[in-house]
Design a protein that fits this description.
three-stranded antiparallel sheet; 207 residues; five-stranded mixed sheet
Length: 207
């Protein structure tokens, strides 16, 4: 949508509008269908976290949910693999960052770790298509990379399970391989196994 005078709005996901109904509005909570997500391979720092004149799309799987009222307890999103194993857990509970905000090494905008919204109304959350990362050593200096950023999941179908107000709502989400990347499934599995093993080594060091 454009004003032809300098402003453009890109409506990149109309799922909530397409699925909206009086029945959804009457529910205390509703989890909308999740669109397929692509595990894009970025060679540089271009991401939704880079400051600029515009705003890039979120990196990962975008999901929408409806809350008729603000729940008293935390909103929890669990991502499960095809075997039902827990890949990631996101929550509305705010967690104190391992790096103080005034630290020069602190990230400017750690969008992937923001708490899930729990106010009444239509809400949006993003899963960055990654496993849980390693536990960072508090106040430790990291020259490059982020140990708290977990490895990317394999292409496949995952289950998003939203727990809110005593309800458990689920919807599948398909994770697709970057079409520009040519790699075998076996190589991806070996890469993931090594990454998860390194993550556990880091957890033991910081424990």
């Amino acid at each position: 949508v454009g004003t032809h005078g300098g402003s453009i709005w890109i409506l990149d996901d109309l799922t909530p509008l397409r699925e909206w109904s009086k029945g959804v509005e009457a529910k205390t909570a509703h989890l909308f269908t999740a669109r397929p997500a692509t595990r894009w391979h970025y060679d540089g720092p271009v991401s939704s976290q880079v400051k600029g004149p515009g705003q890039n799309p979120p990196i990962g799987a975008v999901l929408h949910y409806w809350l008729k009222d603000e729940p008293k307890d935390d909103v929890v999103l669990e991502i499960l693999d095809e075997k039902g194993g827990l890949v990631r857990k996101l929550s509305s509970r705010k967690v104190e960052p391992a790096t103080p905000p005034d630290d020069p090494d602190a990230a400017e905008d750690d969008a992937a770790k923001k708490a899930l919204p729990k106010k009444a109304g239509l809400q949006r959350a993003v899963w960055d298509l990654r496993y849980e990362g390693a536990t960072k050593i508090r106040a430790a200096k990291v020259d490059s990379g982020d140990p708290a950023e977990g490895p990317m999941v394999l292409p496949g179908t995952y289950t998003l399970r939203l727990n809110v107000g005593g309800q458990s709502l689920t919807t599948p989400v398909e994770v697709r391989l970057d079409p520009r990347v040519s790699v075998s499934g076996g190589d991806l599995e070996e890469q993931l196994a090594l990454s998860l093993a390194l993550r556990e080594d880091l957890n033991r060091l910081s424990g």
